[in-house]
Amino acid sequence: MPTQHVLFICQTCAFSQTEREHEGQKGGQYLLEAVKNLHQEWELQADVAIQPVECLSACSRSCAVALAAPGKYTYLFGDLPAQTSASAVLECASLYVAADDGYLPWANRPQPFKNGILARIPPLPSSFST
Is the model's pTM score more than 0.85? Predict the structure, then answer.
């Protein structure tokens, strides 16, 4: 069974540092809808679930998305322009799916994901137990 990857998209992010909403819509909601539209025709649709979230606590760095999967690094990205980042989001998710450990080298990331990294969290050790 393939690893299920999750793309978290903050739907409450502002459009920019200076504009909370644009034409009555928050930036995160705009980005979420744009990614969902592209996701419908995406070849990796079955491998990556889109999960809207209320907040990723990156409010000063909107729009924010995160990529996570069992046994892989988890990434949190911000500073994504709401109106132009949807295809880059899925491009980055494609790279993430292809990487066995989820590691995304800086040089390989789409442009909006090069400077917008907020966190790279290592995978939980396989021996981790509660």
Answer: yes
